[in-house]
Amino acid sequence: MAKYREILTKAIIGKGTNKIEENQVIEVDEEISRALGCWIINHQSSIKVEDEKIFLIGQYEVYVWYGFNHDKNCKLANKVFEFTDEISYKFNDNLVQEINEQTEIKKYVNKQPTCVELKYEKNKIFVKVNRIYSIDIVGETKLTISVNEEEKKDDISNINPNYISDKKNS
Q1: What is the pTM for the complete model shown?
Q2: SS3 call for 168
Q3: pLDDT (tens digit, 9 = 90+) per residue, 104-135?
Q4: Which of 1, 39, 97, 121 has the most crowded CB, counting CB atoms within 10 A?
Q5: Is 62 exposed, middle or buried (0-12, 13-18, 19+ CB in 10 A)?
């Protein structure tokens, strides 16, 4: 007769991914004659759970290099943008699941905020930013395993207790 044991462990019980594409605007004092480049740095984010909803809260800083005065001069403009995005998720099975204080949420940045399009008009710079995040929801789960309770004697007659010494001497 088979016997069973239950093992309580942590496992990934749900997952979610969010791809965000947003348009940001930076205003400058001069009329722009050319957009020369864009770089996004200082990205920070964290997870917040509220009423079974998971939010990603954070910020990043956009730097734009631009020319003005018919490309005779150039400057660097920067602005910090903050965001709050809800991350949709799904549990791995049909069991009733909930997020509670024991639930752990692991966040992954699959794609750092990146400028994918840069345009300008008069004194405004338009930056299209893409970023991708995913989450794993970790919770307690139970595994049931079959256990063989027959006593098994190991054959230790072929073990060399001097194995390490023999290897040093060879």
Answers
A1: 0.76
A2: helix
A3: 999 999 999 999 999 999 999 999 999 999 99
A4: 97
A5: buried
